[in-house]
Amino acid sequence: MTESVVSTSHGAILYDKSIISEIGEERFLPSGWLHAEPVKGVLGSGGRGNTMFVGNVPRQFVLRHFVRGGLVGKLIRDTYLWTGENNTRPFVEWRLLAKLADKGLRVPRPAAARYRRSGPLYRADLITVRIPSVRPLSVCIGERAYDAAFWQAVGESIRQFHAGGVYHADMNAHNLQIDASGELWMLDLDRGRLLDPGPWQQKTLARLHRSLEKIKTLEPNVHFSHENWEQFLEGYFDASRSA
After folding, report:
1. Is the N-terminal amide bond of 58 cis, ω within 30° of 0?
2. What's the distance, CA 19 to chain centroid?
3. Is the distance from CB of 239 to CB of 160 less than 8 angstroms?
């Protein structure tokens, strides 16, 4: 990982020269790429409409503009309080992703991050390397039922992240994605951190459970049951005991 920071007229860009050799403000706009398309999804998996696929095969990227969610997002869409360059959300997430990817954990490889400051506030963007053929867990279970081995493997994968101290601030069935080989990837680590073992591990599991239950409520045909959750926990705690 080759980390470089360049100043701009309104902020700075952090990028990996081995992935993007030259970077400029235009790369953080869809119009700065020959190809750009919005990330679409079902059951809420498309996010908040702030994410684009950009670039061309064989290497494509994901461009995400940072926007707020929840009640706050209805009042303040995409600005954040300035507390220093190294505390900006894109720089923090970029460095966390770089560290996790270097450890071999399945997260997107960060390519570039940008902030644009305006007085006490800033706006932010992040570019990551697109993971081929991944689909949200929410989409997968909307299409068909999975066996015990699948759910146990999902639980085991989450345990691997937790064993590495990876705290995901919003671990849900949309941010957990499955590739063509059935491997689980963790996306969107905004506000994520590395923590020592603690109650946060069970809290993130509970958040994931609520996410799955909510999807099931919104779409009763989704293939998720209490038995599936028990299978997930079996995989998680079996991995804990064998660690």
Report:
1. yes
2. 19
3. yes
Please name the residues in contact with 79: beta carbons below 8 A apart, sequence gap of 6 or more: 118, 121, 122, 123
CA–CA gap between residue 116 and residue 124 (Å, rounded): 6
pTM listed for this prediction: 0.92
Give catalytic status of residue 102 as yes or no. no
Closest CA to 64 of 77, 42, 75, 48: 48
> Contact, 149 vs 55, CB < 8 A?
no
Catalytic residue among 78, 170, 179, 238: 170
Tens of pLDDT along the chain (243 residues)? 789 999 999 999 999 999 998 899 999 999 999 999 998 765 444 555 589 999 987 789 999 999 987 666 567 889 999 999 999 999 999 999 999 999 999 999 999 999 999 999 999 999 999 999 999 999 999 999 999 999 999 999 999 999 999 999 999 999 999 999 999 999 999 999 999 999 999 999 999 999 999 999 999 999 999 999 999 999 999 988 776
Alpha helices in 134-176 (DSSP H): 137-143, 148-163
Nearest to 237 by CA among 210, 186, 201: 201
